Amino acid sequence: MDDYTRKFTPVTGGENLRASLTEVSDALEEKGYNAVNQIIGYLLSEDPTYITSHRNARSLICKLDRDELLSAMLRSYLGK
C-alpha cells in the first residue's frame, strides 16, 4: 500500500446532475418513500432496487456517476 494521498479530480455535471437527482427524488416521494433514505441506500450499496422504477427513476439514477454525485453533494454541503 502506498503512503501518500491520492488526488481525486471529479468531472462536474452541474445542473444536469441536480435535475436528474431531483427527478429521482420526486418519483420516490410520489410513491411514498423517504427519498433521502432511499438515495443514501443506493449510494452506499449501489443496489438499484432502492430506487423505484416509477417515472423511470431507477434507470435515470443508474446513468449518474456515483463518484460525481457524491462529490457534488459534498461540495454543496460544504458550500464550495
Explain how this protein is built.
- The protein is mainly α and 80 residues long.
- Helices cover 57% and strands 0% of the residues.
- The protein has one domain (15-75).
- It has 4 helices and no strands.
- The longest helix has 16 residues, at 15-30.
Short structural summary:
This protein is 57% helix and 0% strand.
N-to-C SSE string, H for helix and E for strand: HHHH
C-alpha termini separation: 31 Å
Beta fraction of the residues?
A: under 5%
Taking all Cα atoms into account, the compactness measure Rg is: 14 Å
How many H/I helical runs? Answer: 4
| Global morphology | globular
- Tally of separate domains: 1
Give the % helix: 55-70%
Structural class comes to: mainly alpha
Mean pLDDT: 88
User: How does the major sheet shape up?
Assistant: none
Uncertain segments: none
